Amino acid sequence: MIQITVDIPEGSLASLHKDPESFAREMRIAAAVQCAEDLSRKALAAGWGNPASRVRHRGPP
């Protein structure tokens, strides 16, 4: 697994009212969303259509 270290100025988390753990969690979620958006955009550009439209959901049992 790749690990990335980010240096953040000292008062930044306090001004956002975040502790380091919750800030890191939100950063991971934001990075995952950005990655999914980029992949979707690339799939559309390649003519593959929207990958999310191919997800099949089962109805109620």
Could you walk me through the main structural features you see in this protein, from its secondary elements to its overall organization?
The chain is 49% helix and 0% strand. It is elongated and about 45 Å long. It is mainly α. The model has no long low-confidence stretch (mean pLDDT 81). It contains two helices and no strands.
Could you outline the blueprint of secondary structure elements for this entry?
Layout: H1 12-15, H2 20-45
Number of strands: 0
**Average pLDDT taken over every residue:** 81
| Class computed from helices, strands and strand pairing | mainly alpha
Question: Which regions are unreliable across 5 or more consecutive residues at pLDDT < 50?
Answer: none
- Helix content estimate: 40-55%
Overall, the morphology is elongated
H/E series, N to C? HH
What's the gyration radius in Å? 18 Å
Termini Cα gap: 38 Å
Major sheet characteristics: none
Please report the number of helical segments: 2
Strand fraction equals under 5%
Concise synopsis of the structure shown:
The protein is mainly alpha-helical. The chain has helices at 12-15, 20-45. The protein is elongated.
Which features characterize this protein?
61 residues; mainly alpha; 2 helices; 49% helix; elongated
